[in-house]
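seq as requested:
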Amino acid sequence: MIGKKKPPPIRSLVGEGMTVQGTLQFSEGLRIDGRVEGDVIATGDTQSILVISEKARIIGKVMAAHVIINGEVEGPIVCHEMLELQPKARVTGDIRYDVLEMHPGALVDGELRSLKSAEKPQLKLAASNDA
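struct tokens:
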């Protein structure tokens, strides 16, 4: 446990049966058990954690440092630290992540790309006929 950061507290909740429309911004931690029709974005320079339960549905962009998904997301996801796709996760959209943990049963319909891949230069074949 030495060197591990303590996760931020979850101080906000979108409860089951609740629908939020529009951009949802949060700091530190947020748990979603309901439905969000809009972007869910962590703000500030602090660590952030977003938990999307198996009952939750998000239609929009998701951005946070640590994201745990066991529900449904329709839209792109950008995760600056760790993305956990639990067994009931259903994602339709492209995903950018630093570290990925994907459990059996999780489904992704989109492109998975490491944030680190953006740092790699594009390769061009020396024998290419393209000039």
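The longest strand covers residues 77-85.
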